[in-house]
Amino acid sequence: MALTLLLRIPPPGRTDTEWLLVDEAGAPAGPRQRGSLEIAAAVGASARIIALAPATQVLLAQPDLPPGSGVKLARAVPFALEEQLTEDIDQLVFAVGKRRASGGTPVAVVSRELLQSWLQRLREVGIEPAAIYPDLSLIPENPAQTVLWLEHDCLAVRRPGVLPFVVELTPVSEALSVAGVIADGADPGAEPKVPESAVLYLTREDWVRVQDEFEPLIDKFESLKIQLLADGPLPWLARELLAAAPVNLLQGEFAADTDYGARWRLWRVPAALAVVLLGVHVGAQALQIHAANKRTAELDGEISEVFKSAMPSEAMQDPRRQMQSRLERIRKSAAGPQVFLRTLQAVSGAVATLPKTSIDALSYHESTVNMKVTAPSVDVLSQLSQAIGRQGWAAEIQSSTPAGGGVEAQLQIRAPGARKHP
Fold first, then answer.
1. In terms of domains, do 16 and 96 share one?
2. Residue 371 within a domain
3. Nearest-5° Cα angle at 325, 323 to 329
4. What is the rounded distance in angstroms from the CA atom of residue 51 to the CA atom of residue 31?
5. Do residues 63 and 80 make contact, with C-beta atoms less than 8 angstroms apart?
6. CATH number for the domain including 40?
7. The domain containing residue 80 runs over which residues?
8. CA dist., res. 412 & res. 422, Å (int)
């Protein structure tokens, strides 16, 4: 799962910061953490890093720009905002977002020197951000209420359909008045202010600090709902990463480069481990295949030996298939197994009564058993044939030859009614 490290750039004069790991949907993948940038760099070593710039140091605007894109559009931005700027445009960086359906184009303006200092601080600890967003651009929009975010002395305001802005002023009543959220009580000649319905987001610590200030201001709102950010603002802001389409300050000369060398250095150890594991897996599979092939050869040898013993008169070509075919023919013959077993019973009974008589080989085909028999003499062979015949089988000596003080003979035994085979 790809993770993103959402990192707040420390404000001037502070070295510690806070960060949060989030998944692809913007949901927290761990607790919010605080510490130095060096620790944040270690935590986000394998994550995509997005930095959030302090709201008080970035101007958000949405001018109506002429059609166009790229360099042509970038050149038109400073002139569209010149009435809102107090600094030399050469000292500013203008980042342009996607044109809205309403016709306006969101623009973020920041000091060039300040942006350079942020990048320098991050790169000193090994952080190369994929994007830098103004933190207030991630404030969620509420279509029915004004969203207020109070953090320390900064009050961010976002009304439905309007870009957010920030007021840095104390006390809270002054900040709300300057932001136009409540009526200015110091100007009795001002037009009556329509009370707004608002929801205020802040940490428990900030609420304890300003609670007494808000109590006399409640009547100046149509409604005011307090939402405490128990885990700080980062999880709340992270939910808008996908939906808000914030303006990335890293554009033009500041656009993030794809450092393939750095990425390879980051992933080379996992890649090496993956290669080693692949090699081990392939080796193990090769050993298993070798063992399986060896066992197959052994089984083939055993099958051949069984074939030679059971079917000595048949030429061996594919012993496994030939034996399966023979067994299938026997199985399809309804009388086959019974005839064969009864024949064996008759033969074994007759052989048992004759000393020094043995069966050397035996085959069965279509209710007929062919046997190779060794006996002490031709008379014993004749007695064997007669003993089998008395049990109802036709026994015929087809050939006989002297062998080692005895006689070897081919004996054919047929079931009653079976035809004679050559």
1. yes
2. yes
3. 115
4. 17
5. yes
6. 3.30.420.380
7. 1-139+239-257
8. 10
Instruction: Give residue-wise pLDDT tens across range 278-326.
Output: 888 888 888 888 888 888 788 777 777 776 766 677 777 787 777 777 7
Which amino acid, 220?
Answer: K
Who's near 30: CB < 8 A, 6+ residues apart? 20, 21
Residue 5 in any domain: the answer is yes
Contact 136, 149 (CB under 8 A): yes
- CATH at 402: 3.30.1360.100
- List, for residues 91-150, the tens digit of each pLDDT value: 999 998 888 877 788 899 999 999 999 999 999 999 999 999 999 999 999 999 999 999
Structural domains of the chain, count: 3
Question: Does 175 share its domain with 96?
Answer: no
Secondary structure string (H, E, C) spanning 317-357 = CCHHHHHHHHHHHHHHCCCHHHHHHHHHHHHHHHHHCCCCC
Is residue 114 within 8 Å of 108, Cβ to Cβ? no
User: 151 and 180, same structural domain?
Assistant: yes
Sign for the CA dihedral angle at 380, 393, 408, 356 comes to: negative
